[in-house]
UniProtKB/TrEMBL annotation, chains A, B:
Residue span(s) of domain Anoctamin alpha-beta plait: 21-146
Name the record gives this protein: Anoctamin
Major site of localization recorded for this protein: membrane
InterPro entries linked to this entry: Anoctamin, Anoctamin_N_fung, Anoctamin_TM
Spans traversing the lipid bilayer: 187-207, 213-234, 294-317, 329-349, 376-396, 444-465, 574-596, 608-630
Membrane topology: Multi-pass membrane protein
Keyword set includes Membrane: yes
């Protein structure tokens, strides 16, 4: 049984067959448009596809959609495209070796994976016409009616995949390679990262559990080990990323991205390297625009932090000071404020971020995405960690001074009221406010356990609900434009099952690997920043991520359209964010340990500002030194991927060398010396023998002089 | 006149001719040995040279030396070697393009520079026999009697060079290229760095002078600008270094170094890349040995700092507290202690550093040198900056508390003595000790002006004195072994002038470019660390370095043997040291400004520990952010060298592409679809027309339904 699964997992081409040879499905949604417009755009679509050598079949998609099935017209065309793509890779340094000049032989030597095939067809469909594609950009520009372009799931592969992963403890590199052959390097990189992180979490969980049971709370030893762990993990992944990129043959592929259709060029210049005329936007201008990121990041942080701080103050006041009427209801107020205001704020800020990123005018998709991710990461950071920072570094140390002043509205009667009588306890304030020492730990547990579980559940539930809602919305839209959805009765009965499947897949959401990476990155942040508060966090993450890895696989298989197999040579900007969190961790840990380490029950001992600054200064510099040392050490150890790259480059060159190395000097003794003064100088002694004799004469002469 | 100079500067091959075609001179010093040994080793030498295709002539070197003149036997041999070297470069990724298969054509396309010729002959002489050389290692192993192996100066070139440089303000890239063609990339990199630094110093001097005359002392604005300047300089050089390496065709050349003869292999393994059997020493073992550097650096720093601190205490005591007998003599005591003890300590520590570096067992010369440089840099750092750190951060802020306790021997009578009478003022202490506020500034001026001038003078004087002393020592040694030096009377009169010149050159010292780089790096440190104390430092350095650049050129021409033209792709580990000093500068400046900025006459105002820590913490993080931003910004701007590299690689690949790209698909429509279910699915609609009609039918049908 397992053998069959393996066989299915490793048969890359079988899949398309089970999809009746369909490479892409284009969902054409005419339901939201007028008939004339729809027909015109449809005709244009078919013609564009036909022009680039794609063959089409059209079926009713039901619900006001037409499904255009796309495949390459001839295998020969595909082979030509593959070859050109490989040559382009080689021209840009992605491949070490040029592809074989005989294309057929080249394909036999490096068989076409399904991901490569799909990627190449995708390029045919989406690249601008100037670059040899049909120029189809779903939902944009001239192609507003195209709802989506997606490949079809290979259900047999998916079933085998899920089965395999749910029955093994770890995902092997071979499994990742199979995944990459189907879903492309970008998705494979996410799973590779997740697996690598999971393996490291075993160590972190072991360290955390030992610290929890054996060491005192807020142990310095644990904080140091935890920091070291994060440094080693980040540096290790940095190397592994390069390694995988080399093994998967995608190193530097990020430099070879497809041009954004929205890129606005300032002028056309001749590329100094390729001598082609290219669209040009000056780098310094982009740089100037990028500098707007700094005020934006600061502003966004300030706004969001202020929001959190005010709500936090209200929350503290309500839960720990206020004792008046409706307390049981009012305590839910802060959570309500946050859950309504934060999405509003972040969506406004995200819009501004998008405007900024558009303004920065990137030439290709991947740099655009990276710029956007970096901006949004600022909000992620604030929303994820500021509540905990507030508790740890404001509430706990200064709560006793600040909290009594929170009652600016005078809602709480002064504490003399306690003297009155037992009956008037409704408006009673606690005699002396005492900081709740467990608050920080409870909050950390909430973020590292409860929130993770909730998010795991939501990830499964939300797409399902979304689908329901969208279906309703479409029905409404259809009705408004006079479209009565077909019920599938017109289908050829032989195709009905297949078409039903395709219609369902067309309704699924788009898988965005960045969301999953963000989730993991934020999680890593909790570990580096706050695990001294509750060392078991790593254990929770270990369990959570073991499931996450599998549920993400299931999500791709079941709840999302099959992703287009894009290439990538890394996890992109997330590596920097991991490094940043690891650095922040060295600061946060030092501050936490300094504040809480000697305290009973989490109450800080007397603290001095210079003490905490010294702790941070020390810790940070130790962090730098450690990172440097770990990087050095890892850099000296050879990695299999880099070895492979060196070998490939060497072999390519040696082949050339062997072809060309017939050159050898003929020994024509003394051929060089000619005439004149130079000839006289070099003519005195003949050959080695002459020189030896001359030397002995010189040596001898001086000794003899002495002996005389 | 200038035209002739230019002509000489750009005629690379003329030089060897004026040296009678001599490529290298081997100075064989038999004076220190027995006759039999000397004769045996001499014979071996000639045979070894003969075996690798080198031709020799021997002349009396006078003073117990024999001079062996070496040249390549045939031009054909040389061409073969050049070709092999270029192919090796290409195999290791130093060159983008493979050299032309026709060697003669290859040399015509890329003419042989004198540096390349000399480098290749040098390799013939010094490479181990296993790698095709004669395996001659001067002063080591079997070649103890070989005093030196050196090329001869090209006096005409040197004269033109010195004349040109002493009459122009800046050294142009073309000049550097000429230099590189003669002296190799390693020396050229030093001068390129020095010129780049000099250009940046113009800005620094302008900033410094304005700050000195317009801003208050210890101005924050100046400190920030100065720090920013240092960041920009380091980042700029980092890019320029790569750029130059590409232009000079030596990028990555550091990965292709010659093996150290002293490398001890643990076992022989097959290289996974080249499949050759290579000598192997495990990286982890070297790493473990390298970790000894940490305790060594800490220990050395502690010892040297303690030395400086004690001497400093004595000095303060003697100059500012002590008033007893012999004061006028005793004040010289600290300087004497330092100038005797520091060399002793550093030479012991350098020996330990050498032992450590030997123990680390590097495979090639350049990594050995880099490791040694890094260790010695620790001493450089301590010896150069600790005296100033002590004054700035110990003496000035804490002097008033510490100094009165320095009189541990009770040499000074208590201050009551002032009450006695005017006559007993010999043993009188100052009534209340007052820190000397000018001390720091005076010290900075000493290090940035006086010491620079002195070192410039010493650089010129010391080699001259050394030569004198060595000549005496040799005469003594000759006498002991019964060698009576020849007086040159046996020379062929036609050769006498030439031989006299060669004998003189043989006596010159060896030029070590690292010493000059060290000097510049240490100077840069004064600028980053202490220029807030005296902003004119940059002006002094600007003047000094303008002369230094020229005097270093003169030093190479006149006082040193002509250096062997080694290759290099950077200034090596000094870049890291510059970065380190720039970082330290951000810390030191912040501390200086915090301590002294509001003070009159350099006395610190009331200070708090947390204040200084905050200042440092802020400043350092601003430094990080700035460095990051500058690096980003510079990274986005294209550099000419990198552009050239991209172009070369692209052209190489395109050539291949043009040769091979005859591949194009034949349009065989619908060739792919075959039979069965798949055939049925794809057979419904014929061509684009069929699909369009089908689509229209689907679209129409739904609208019609509505219209019914």
């Amino acid at each position: 049984m397992a053998d069959t699964d393996d066989a299915i997992l490793s048969a890359p081409v079988a899949a398309v067959a089970s999809n009746l040879g369909v490479e892409y499905v284009i969902s054409f949604r005419f339901g939201g448009s007028d008939r004339e417009k729809a027909e015109a755009q449809f005709e244009k679509l078919i013609r564009a596809l036909d022009n680039v050598g794609l063959r089409t079949e059209v079926r009713d998609g039901a619900n006001g959609n037409a499904l255009v099935f796309v495949r390459v017209r001839s295998e020969q065309k595909l082979i030509g495209e593959v070859y050109r793509s490989r040559v382009k890779d080689w021209l840009h340094g992605v491949r070490a070796a040029a592809p074989d000049k005989e294309t057929q032989r080249s394909l036999a030597g490096e068989p076409l994976t399904e991901a490569e095939r799909l990627r190449i067809v995708w390029q045919l469909i989406t690249l601008p016409e100037s670059e040899g594609g049909a120029g189809i950009t779903p939902k944009q520009g001239d192609w507003k009616l195209i709802e989506s372009v997606f490949p079809l799931h290979d259900h047999e592969f998916n079933k085998a995949w899920m089965k395999k992963w749910s029955t093994t403890w770890t995902v092997s590199p071979e499994e990742l390679e199979k995944l990459r052959d189907r879903f492309g390097e970008k998705v494979a990189f996410y799973f590779a990262f997740l697996q690598s992180y999971l393996s490291f979490l075993i160590a972190a969980a072991a360290i955390g559990a030992s610290a929890f049971f054996l060491l005192p709370a807020y142990s310095l030893a644990f904080a140091v080990t935890n920091c070291l762990w994060s440094v080693v993990f980040v540096e290790h992944w940095k190397r592994q990323e390069v390694d995988l990129a080399v093994r998967w043959g995608v190193r530097n592929v990020s430099s070879l991205q497809n041009r954004r259709a929205q890129f606005v060029h300032e002028k056309e210049v001749e590329d100094p390297v390729t001598c082609e005329v290219v669209k040009f936007f000056p780098a310094w201008k982009r740089l100037a625009r990028q500098s707007l990121q700094v005020p934006f990041a600061l502003g966004a942080s300030a706004i969001l932090s202020a929001l959190y701080a005010s709500v936090f103050a209200v929350e503290i006041f309500l839960s720990e000071v206020y004792n008046g009427p409706f307390k049981s209801v009012l305590v839910f107020l802060p959570a309500t404020i946050l859950s309504t205001l934060v999405p509003v704020f972040t969506s406004i800020l995200t819009k501004i971020a998008k405007m900024l990123t558009d303004f920065e005018n990137y030439e290709n998709e991947s740099s655009y995405d990276a710029a956007m991710i970096q901006k949004v990461f600022v909000f992620n950071f604030i929303c994820s960690y500021v509540p905990l920072f507030l508790t740890a570094f404001i509430y706990v140390p200064f709560g006793n001074y600040i909290v009594p002043h929170l009652d600016i509205l005078g809602l709480v009667t002064p504490s003399e009221s306690t003297l009155d009588s037992d009956s008037s306890h409704i408006f009673e304030a606690p005699a002396v406010f005492q900081v709740n020492p467990d608050r920080l730990k409870k909050q950390v547990i909430y973020f590292t356990v409860t929130a993770q579980v909730v998010s795991l559940a939501l990830e499964t539930l939300v797409p399902f609900l979304k689908r329901k809602i969208f279906r309703k919305a479409k029905e409404y839209q259809n009705a408004r434009h006079g479209v009565v959805p077909s019920d599938g009765l017109t289908d050829d009965p032989a195709e009905r099952a297949f078409l039903t499947r395709v219609r369902n897949e067309a309704e699924l959401g788009l898988y965005d690997v960045e969301t999953d990476l963000r989730e993991m990155c934020v999680q890593f942040g909790y570990l580096t920043l706050f695990s001294p508060v509750w060392p078991l966090a790593a254990v929770s993450f270990l369990i959570n991520n073991w499931i996450e890895l599998r549920s993400d696989a299931a999500k791709i298989c079941v709840e999302m359209r099959r992703p287009v197999p894009h290439r990538a040579d890394s996890i992109g900007p997330w590596l920097n964010n991991l490094g940043f969190l690891s650095w922040m961790g060295s600061i946060s840990s030092a501050a936490l340990i300094y504040l809480f380490s000697d305290s009973a029950a989490g109450m800080p001992h007397s603290l001095t500002l210079w003490g905490i600054l010294t702790a941070i200064l020390f810790s940070e510099h130790i962090y730098f030194a450690t990172t440097y040392a770990v990087r050095m050490a890892m850099g000296k150890l050879e990695s299999p991927g880099l070895l492979q790259e060196r070998r490939e480059r060497f072999l390519v060159r040696r082949r050339f060398l062997e072809e060309s190395l017939g050159v050898d000097e003929k020994t024509e003794p003394d051929q060089k010396v000619t005439i004149g003064k130079e000839g006289e100088f070099w003519g005195k002694q003949h050959g080695a023998k002459g020189a030896m004799d001359a030397g002995k004469r010189i040596i001898g002469a001086t000794y003899e002089k002495k002996e005389q």
